[in-house]
Every structure is written in structure tokens, then in C-alpha cells.
């Protein structure tokens, strides 16, 4: 028996999707068949090949997938090849020794269970046949729908792992301008080789275990002292314990007031999988016992001067291309031990407005000249911090204005959103005397710049760690301290004097 309705839904055009334009700034809505739309889990391909992608909504994702939409990562071929003569340098020897010395805990959790489904043969080859070389460059190509594009250094990987009959060779690119290796790229190659279809979060776990000191890992319960013979055991039961206690210092205030969507607990995995817009159907409260959070004895282990790590964090931000933002009313776990009720959201991007970054308005909110002026003020602060402090792509910045709700800002897949209503209610009135006499000193300027500096740090930290746990706190501390000098330099010269005209020629 053939269901005629299902046949029609499979073969006819009814799916709403969005396709990036060539400049990667705007997207065009399309109505296509389910088999012509893709589910975005490989955003680099979206930027290079511009496939038609579904809106960033979990309910639509499930619906489209049911009728034939494919995940983008299953349709993309990624090819990495080294170029130039491989050299065994002191740097390559040190990296090989680092990996070999940490193999016994690199791919397992604190209970010695594999972080994902292990490829046994590949793991054994890595243990016995690993070589590391330095090369001139790594050529990175993405192939999608028979179209192959080569990525530049900015978007390509800095290393490649290649296997031959007698050798597992890791090649990394020479870069005289960078003193430290990109451990995230290295972890990505190791993860793809050792595991079968690993979650992306595994990459960051392995990157952290390569870059952190043994003392730091030991204090966090990583089994650094176990021998290789006793590790990698089959898990009897895997689960995700959620944090029940939050660490509220030294940035507790920002942590408490800035909302970030937290991930749901998976019942069959020890890895947390991101859920960009959860619905009320799959929310639940945890009953796991709270783990003990151990404070480090030496804050130097945070490595606040690791600019490579911070640069990678900012690079993960990206533009939000959909012209609408819709989510179901739901309850989310906040601070991993309390809950916040979020109202439903249905926001649409304003068109033809002279604001330097996109503004999304909740339905039934009327655009006014005063609102647009305040949006320009907030955009002036945010783009100034992005350009002069974080070297952050301003296309990742967005404004939104809701009627009610607790969120000052949030991060959705690297797109950063800042609440204009909060700026209006907290800062706008205090700012008016300064705007009338912009050359006169006023402490409100320092307050606004410092506040949004911390808010941006908070949201950037969520590029690496979705949950408000100890790893998130350490990342937030790294960002805040690492960019503090640039912020102070920016603050000395900052003024609202030209906020109305600076970006008038730009449109989104």
C-alpha cells in the first residue's frame, strides 16, 4: 500500500529553505522538495557551496529528515593533503612524543570508557606506527555535488593525518608567525581517525587533553596515571551527568543574568549533543548527584596568554542567515541547577534600516525612530569591541528586541544576539546627558563598554563550552583576561560622537 499523501510530501515542493548569496551576507528563501534541502551540520560547506538549508529549528529538521532531507556532512567529501617535502623537525618530534605519552588517556573519559565508538585497528596503528612531520602547507578541499573548492589557510586545517601500509603520518603546516600548535586541528584529525562518527564535542575534549598540563588534568580527574594496558574498556552504561552546582566567581553576575541555551542530556551517550532550539517535549530535569568541583591551585595553568586558543574561539562565530527566529515556548535548565522559563519567540529581521548589524523584532513590536537610534548606539559599542578588541567578524553580531524574557544575550551556533530592550531599559536614559555633550567625561561610557565586553566574552565562551560548567568558567576567564589590555586601549579613545553616521552606508 502506498500512502498518496506521503508520496506527495516526498516528491513535491513545500519545504522552506534558505540559500546564502555569493557574498555570504544575505540569504534567499526557497521553496523546494525535501530531497533538495539540506540539514546544516557542516557550516563550512554552507559558506563555500551555498546549498539550500533548512531553518535552524529542531521540529522542522525532524520533519524534513522524515521526508528525505539529508544531513550536509553525509554529502560532503573533505580531502586534506600535505604539500612540500615532509621534515622531521624538533617541533614535530616534540608533538609526536606528546601524543604518544598521552595515548593512554587521550580517547577515554574519566571512567576509562571510550569517548565514542572506537575503531580498534586504527587505534592500534596510531599506538605503534605514528610519525609526525612538518610541511609547507596543507591543501584542504571540500567536494559537494561534484563541485570541489579549495579552502584558504584561514578556513582550512593546519594539519592532516594520512595512513599508509606501514605508517600513520600526521603532517602539520609550518607557520613562523605562530609559536604554538593548533591543538584543535590536531585533535580533529586524531578524532576522525580513531573514532567512528564521533560527536564534535570529542574534538574539544582531546584538544584540552593535549594542551593542558598533567597537573591540571590530574586535578580534574583525568586518569593520567593509568597505564595503557588498563585503559579503553567497554562501557557497561554510559550517561551524561549534569552539573547541579554552579561556580559563581569571579564573573558570577554576568553568568547569572546572561542567558545561554544549555544542551539536553542524551540517554545513550556520555557526550552532550547541542540542541539549538529545544522544544518542551524533550526537556527534563536532572536527578544526578552533583560532582565535586576542584579549584586549581595555580591560575597560571589557565594559560591566559594563549592567543591561538582565543583566536580559534572567536573564529567559530558566524552570521545567522535566516530572516526569522522562531522557537516554541519551553523551559530550559539554567546554571545547571536552576531553571528559567523562556517565552515563545517569533522575530523577524528588519529590512532597509541604517544599522550596522541586523536587528530582529518580536511580532507586534513597532519600529520607531527612537528604537533605531538606540540600536545604532548599541551597535556602535558592539562593533567597536568586535573590531578593536576581539578582532571578531562583525557579521556574527545581531540585535533583537523582545517584549518579555530574561535574556540579555544568547549564542546560537556561533551567531551572537544582544537584547536591545535591555540596553533601552538599563543604559539609554543614563546615556542621554552624554550624547548631548559627547566631549564631557561621563562614567556611563566606561560602564557600558565594560559590561558589553564581559557579555561578549561570555557568549564567545559558549562557542567552546555550551554548559555553564568549570570548563566554561575557565574559558571565560581566559577570554576576559586575554583581551583586557585591548579593551582598556579601546576604552580610552571610545566616543559616541559619530555613532549615527559611521555605518550608514552599510545595509544588511
Comma- or semicolon-separated keywords:
disordered C terminus; 508 residues; alpha/beta; globular; 16 helices; 18% strand; 3 domains; 6-stranded mixed sheet; 34% helix
Task: Give a quick account of the main beta sheet: strands, pairing sense, barrel closure.
Answer: 6 strands, mixed
Counting H and I runs of at least 4 residues, what is the number of helices?
A: 16
Structural class: alpha/beta
Any idea how many domains?
Answer: 3
C-alpha end-to-end distance: 50 Å
- Give the low-pLDDT segments: 228-305, 502-508
Which percent band covers the strand fraction? 15-25%
| Principal-axes shape call | globular
Order of the strands making up the biggest sheet: 11-14-15-16-18-17
Q: Mean pLDDT, rounded to whole units? A: 78
- What is the radius of gyration computed over CA atoms, rounded to a whole number of angstroms? 24 Å
User: What's the total count of β strands?
Assistant: 18
Helix content: 25-40%
Amino acid at each position: 500500500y502506498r500512502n498518496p499523501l506521503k508520496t506527495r510530501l516526498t516528491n513535491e515542493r513545500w519545504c522552506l529553505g534558505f540559500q546564502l548569496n555569493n557574498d555570504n551576507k544575505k540569504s534567499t528563501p526557497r521553496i523546494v522538495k525535501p530531497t533538495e534541502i539540506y540539514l546544516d551540520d557542516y557550516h563550512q560547506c554552507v559558506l563555500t557551496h551555498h546549498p539550500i538549508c533548512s531553518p535552524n529549528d529542531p521540529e522542522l529538521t525532524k520533519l524534513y529528515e522524515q521526508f528525505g532531507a539529508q544531513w550536509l556532512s553525509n554529502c560532503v567529501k573533505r580531502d586534506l593533503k600535505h604539500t612540500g617535502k615532509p621534515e622531521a623537525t624538533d617541533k614535530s618530534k616534540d608533538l609526536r612524543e606528546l601524543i604518544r605519552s598521552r595515548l593512554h588517556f587521550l580517547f577515554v573519559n574519566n571512567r576509562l570508557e571510550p569517548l565514542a565508538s572506537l575503531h580498534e585497528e586504527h587505534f592500534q596503528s596510531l599506538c605503534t606506527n605514528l610519525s609526525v612531520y612538518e610541511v609547507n602547507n596543507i591543501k584542504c578541499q571540500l567536494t559537494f555535488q561534484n563541485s570541489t573548492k579549495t579552502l584558504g589557510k584561514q578556513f582550512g586545517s593546519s594539519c592532516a593525518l594520512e595512513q599508509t601500509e606501514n605508517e600513520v603520518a600526521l603532517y602539520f603546516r609550518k607557520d613562523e608567525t605562530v609559536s604554538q600548535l593548533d591543538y584543535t586541528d590536531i585533535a580533529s584529525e586524531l578524532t576522525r581517525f580513531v573514532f567512528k562518527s564521533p560527536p564534535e564535542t570529542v574534538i574539544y575534549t582531546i584538544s584540552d587533553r593535549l594542551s593542558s598540563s598533567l597537573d591540571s588534568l590530574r586535578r580534574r580527574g583525568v586518569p593520567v596515571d593509568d597505564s595503557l594496558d588498563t585503559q579503553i574498556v567497554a562501557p557497561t552504561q554510559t550517561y551524561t551527568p549534569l552539573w547541579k552546582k554552579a561556580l559563581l566567581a569571579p564573573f558570577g553576575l554576568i553568568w547569572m543574568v546572561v542567558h545561554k541555551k544549555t544542551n539536553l542530556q542524551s540517554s545513550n551517550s556520555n557526550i552532550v549533543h547541542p540542541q539549538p532550539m529545544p522544544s518542551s517535549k524533550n526537556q527534563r530535569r536532572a536527578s544526578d548527584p552533583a560532582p565535586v568541583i576542584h579549584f586549581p591551585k595555580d591560575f597560571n595553568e589557565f594559560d591566559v596568554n594563549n592567543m591561538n586558543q582565543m583566536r580559534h574561539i572567536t573564529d567559530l562565530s558566524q552570521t545567522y542567515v535566516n530572516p526569522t527566529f522562531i522557537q516554541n515556548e519551553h523551559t530550559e535548565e539554567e546554571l545547571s541547577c536552576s531553571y528559567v522559563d523562556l517565552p515563545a519567540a517569533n522575530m523577524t529581521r528588519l529590512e532597509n534600516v541604517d544599522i550596522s548589524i541586523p536587528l530582529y523584532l518580536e511580532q507586534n513590536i513597532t519600529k520607531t525612530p527612537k528604537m533605531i537610534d538606540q540600536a545604532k548606539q548599541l551597535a556602535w559599542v558592539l562593533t567597536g569591541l568586535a573590531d578593536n578588541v576581539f578582532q571578531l567578524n562583525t557579521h556574527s553580531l545581531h540585535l533583537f528586541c523582545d517584549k518579555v524574557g530574561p535574556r540579555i544575550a544568547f549564542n546560537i551556533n556561533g551567531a551572537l544576539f544582544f537584547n536591545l530592550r535591555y540596553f533601552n531599559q538599563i543604559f539609554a536614559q543614563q546615556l542621554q546627558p552624554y550624547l548631548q555633550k559627547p566631549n564631557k567625561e561621563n562614567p556611563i561610557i566606561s560602564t557600558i563598554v565594560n559590561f558589553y565586553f564581559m557579555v561578549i566574552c561570555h557568549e564567545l565562551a559558549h562557542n567552546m563550552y555550551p554548559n555553564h560548567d568549570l570548563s566554561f568558567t575557565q574559558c571565560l576567564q581566559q577570554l576576559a583576561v586575554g583581551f583586557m589590555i585591548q579593551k582598556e586601549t579601546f576604552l580610552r579613545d571610545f566616543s559616541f560622537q559619530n555613532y549615527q553616521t559611521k555605518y550608514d552606508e552599510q545595509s544588511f
